[in-house]
Design a protein that fits this description.
One of its GO terms (molecular function) is 3'-5'-RNA exonuclease activity. This is Endonuclease/Exonuclease/phosphatase family protein. Pfam families: Exo_endo_phos. It comes from Rosistilla ulvae. The chain is of the alpha+beta class and 305 residues long. The protein has one domain: Endonuclease/exonuclease/phosphatase (Deoxyribonuclease I, Chain A), CATH 3.60.10. Helix content is 20%, strand content 26%. The chain contains six helices and 13 strands. Strands 1-4-5-3-2-13-12 form a seven-stranded mixed beta sheet. A six-stranded mixed beta sheet has the order 6-7-8-9-11-10. Strand 2, helix 2 and strand 3 form a beta-alpha-beta unit. Helix 4 runs parallel beside helix 5. The chain starts with a strand and ends with a strand.
Length: 305
C-alpha cells in the first residue's frame, strides 16, 4: 500500500503570519485560550472537498482562510476530512512544521478524499502509521460494505511526545463516516473501537472525525457508552461543556452565524487525558465560515502515568 508522508520545519516561515491574522477581519470566540505547559492542542476540521461546485465558497476562494483558521488555533494534532491530494499539498505548503499522513480512499494512494492528519514534527516522534477502510475488509484499499455509499477510510499514527514524561505513546486516529448508510455508520463505530484496541491498547488515544451522526445516534452510543453504561471513549466537548443545545451544531453551510442542527464532528479520547477545554470554532470573516463544517478543538493534558 502506498503511503504519503512528508516532514517539514519552521512553521513561522509559512506565507501567513500571526500579525497578518491579527490585522485581518477574522472573528472567533473560541481559539487562543491561555496556554498550559505541555498541553496538546487538537483540531478536527472537515475542509470540504476542493472540487465541489460551491460558487463563491469554492476552495480557491477560501483556501487561505482555511489555512489561517488552522494557524490561529495552532494545533499540535490536526485531523482533516474530505481532503483531496491538491488540498493536502496546499496545507503542507502552508504548514511546513508539520508532518502529514494521508492516502486517497479510492486506491490507497492519491485518488479520492483523504482523512489526512497532521502533527508537529519537532514535538512528536513518529513510531508507526497506517490506514484502514471502514468495511468488512479493512485492509483492502477502496473497499466498502454494508449500505455505505462510498469507500470510507481511517488514517492513524502512533506518536511519542517529546515534551511529555508520560511513558505511553499516543495513538492519533482520524476518520470520516458515510453520510448515507446508517448501518455503515453503526458498523464503522464498532470497527473503530476494535481497531483502537488492536493498534493502541497500550496508548493514550485521540480520535478525530466527521461522524455524520448526532449525539443521540447509535454510533455515538457505541463510541461513548456501552450497554453497561461504561465509556469506551470520552467526548471532549460533552465533558468540557454545558448541557447539549440545538446551537451546538458543527455544520456551518459556510455561514458564520450559528443555527440549529446536529453536532456531528467530534474529538474523543481514551487513557490518561485531562480535558482542559473543548470548543466549536466559529471563526468567520464578513459573515462567512472557512468551510461547510466548523472546526472543533480540544486542549488536553496527560497525567504522566
Amino acid at each position: 500500500m502506498a503511503l504519503s508522508r512528508r516532514r517539514f520545519s519552521c512553521f513561522y516561515c509559512a506565507p501567513f503570519s500571526l500579525l497578518a491574522l491579527l490585522g485581518s477581519t477574522l472573528v472567533s470566540l473560541s481559539f487562543c485560550p491561555v496556554a498550559v505547559a505541555d498541553d496538546v492542542r487538537v483540531m478536527s476540521f472537515n475542509i470540504r472537498y476542493g472540487t465541489a461546485s460551491d460558487g463563491e465558497n469554492h476552495w480557491e476562494r477560501r483556501k487561505e482562510f482555511v489555512a489561517e483558521t488552522i494557524a490561529a488555533y495552532d494545533p499540535d494534532l490536526l485531523g482533516t476530512q474530505e481532503t483531496l491530494e491538491f488540498q493536502k499539498q496546499f496545507l503542507e505548503q502552508q504548514m511546513p512544521d508539520y508532518t502529514s499522513v494521508g492516502v486517497g480512499r479510492d486506491d490507497g494512494s492519491d485518488r479520492g478524499e483523504m482523512t489526512a492528519l497532521f502533527f508537529k514534527t519537532k514535538r512528536f516522534d513518529l513510531r508507526d502509521e497506517g490506514h484502514f477502510w471502514l468495511s468488512e475488509t479493512p485492509a483492502k484499499a477502496g473497499s466498502k460494505s454494508w449500505d455505505s455509499s462510498l469507500p470510507r477510510i481511517c488514517s492513524w499514527v502512533r506518536l511519542k511526545d517529546r515534551q511529555s514524561d508520560a511513558p505511553r505513546e499516543i495513538l492519533f486516529i482520524n476518520t470520516h463516516f458515510d453520510h448515507r448508510g446508517q448501518q455503515a455508520r453503526d458498523e464503522s463505530a464498532k470497527l473503530i473501537l476494535r481497531k483502537i484496541d488492536e493498534l493502541g491498547a497500550d496508548c493514550d488515544v485521540v480520535l478525530t472525525g466527521d461522524f455524520n451522526s448526532s449525539v443521540t445516534s447509535v454510533p455515538y452510543r457505541t463510541l461513548f457508552s456501552d450497554a453497561a453504561g461504561q465509556s469506551p471513549l470520552v467526548d471532549t466537548y460533552a465533558a468540557a461543556g454545558p448541557k447539549e443545545t440545538k446551537g451546538d451544531t458543527t455544520i456551518s453551510r459556510f455561514l458564520g452565524d450559528r443555527f440549529a442542527g446536529p453536532r456531528i464532528d467530534w474529538i474523543a479520547t481514551r487513557g490518561n487525558w485531562k480535558i482542559l477545554d473543548a470548543q466549536i470554532d466559529r471563526t468567520a470573516r464578513e459573515g462567512r465560515a472557512p468551510s461547510d463544517h466548523y472546526p472543533v478543538t480540544a486542549r488536553l493534558q496527560r497525567d504522566g502515568k
